[in-house]
Amino acid sequence: MPDNVALLQIIHRWIDTASRCMTSPMSMPACKPFLEYVLYASAGIATVLLLWTGWKMVDYIVLQLATQACIAGQTAAPWHSITLHTEVRDAKGNLLAGGDFKSIPLPPQKFLELTGMRALPANWQARFYKP
Known about the structure:
Blueprint: H1 4-23, H2 32-76, E1 82-89, E2 95-103, H3 108-115, H4 122-128
Antiparallel strand pairs: 1-2
């Protein structure tokens, strides 16, 4: 590992070479190794940026397709009933009562229209209207 003076000399030589090669023609033989290094580093950075951009675009397209499929599924499908099975058992596990109920989920506005209510009770609003 070089000490601080040697490291500063390396950096100074690199800056000197960079300034000399940026102001001279590209065909200058002394600048060929430097320009190749810059070319490879630039190509590597460009490749990483292009791959990252492509990954983000694929991620965005997949997200958009999933969102469209979800919206299409919500708007195209009618409200389906949900069957609820309930059981009441005692401490020993004996069945005391049981039943199957069909429930059809409704949006809050549709529920208000069907029931003739003006507003939902306060304790119900917390379930339907989440901030």
